[in-house]
Amino acid sequence: MDRLRHAVKYGYSFEIIKGYQFKTGDIFSKFLTKLYNLRKQYEKGTPMNLNAKLLMNSLYGKFGMRDDITKMIILPNVSQDDKQEV
Q1: When you count CB atoms within 10 A of the terminal residue's CB, does the N or C end of the chain come out lower?
Q2: pLDDT tens for residues 30-67?
Q3: How many Cα atoms are found within 13 Å in the side-chain-facing hemisphere of 39?
Q4: pLDDT greater than 70 at residue 82
Q5: CA-to-CA distance for 20 and 8, rounded, in angstroms?
Q6: Which band of pLDDT confidence, cut at 50, 70 and 90, is reported for residue 85?
Q7: Alpha-carbon distance 52 to 37, whole Å?
């Protein structure tokens, strides 16, 4: 989103063709609570403890990733007539 704001400063304009809007909410707290309680039941170093820890850390790692993989495609500004020719 910062790239788009920066581009607007230089005179670019954008037309949003389609997108998705998701509801916000607490979707992982039950899952993480279950994993944490499972981890507490077993001693450190046991497979159940390590698996629960791995699942919790993997979830955190996935959603903590930087958003550098966003794919932006810049298309030339064309009229309706030009679109029909393509």
Answers
A1: C
A2: 999 999 999 999 999 999 999 999 999 888 777 776 66
A3: 16
A4: no
A5: 22
A6: low
A7: 9
Question: Up-side HSE of residue 79: CA atoms within 13 Å toward CB?
Answer: 1
Per-residue pLDDT band for 68 (boundaries 50, 70, 90) equals: low
Under 8 Å between Cβ of 72 and 3: yes
What would the DSSP string read from start to end of 31-47? HHHHHHHHHHHS-TTSH
Q: Are 29 and 60 in contact (CB under 8 A)?
A: no
Amino acid sitting at position 55: L
Structure tokens at 80: 């309706």
Chain-centre distance for alpha carbon 51 = 24
Q: Global pTM? A: 0.49
